[in-house]
Specification:
191 residues, 5 strands, Rossmann fold, alpha/beta, 5-stranded parallel beta sheet, 14% strand, binds adenosine monophosphate
Length: 191
Amino acid sequence: MLNIVLFGPPGAGKGTQSENLIKRYDLVHLSTGDIFRANIKGGTDLGNLAKSYIDKGALVPDEVTIQMLESEVNKHPEAKGFIFDGFPRTTAQAEALDRFMDSRNDSITCMLALEVPEEELRQRLKSRAETSGRSDDADPQVIQKRIDTYKRETAPVADYYRAQEKLVAINGVGSIEAISKRLFEAVDATD
Ligand code: AMP
């Protein structure tokens, strides 16, 4: 199986690039942010819980997030592989994902880490706010909190995959097509 962790700060282009990766490699796309937002829309207990964290720019607790992710993976027994978008966001989540993959006799193939300068991230999130309808994009204070949370809790996850020699840094600046090409080359090099 081809299991890709697509990593990067908020606004790095993970959602956009996931779409191109799933088309090319026929993978199942699991975005924890999208799943939380669907639960919020559906008014589920999980959605109500997640909303209280998302609105503050904080992370939803690991236990809840890991359990949700595992049950989503289990919904796709026929999958040829997965793109994990926005997960893992803490080292504890990365460890749990490895244990879970191991229990399925599977593993993470690589982490593709999109790198974008902070000023460009802010600009992108600002323009995304005009169309995304996401309340966490609309408030500059929440954006700042998300960037701070990323630096403090999520950036160390890259070290976790670097230690396993699975980290591939990708320049996330340029046209969507140019960035997709870089990602495809990195995936093809893992064969
Ligand atoms: P995203 O759509 O990936 O930008 O995620 C939006 C929000 O959902 C984040 O700011 C977090 O509050 C929450 N979230 C998404 N993925 C995770 C995760 N793996 N762990 C904890 N919280 C998450």
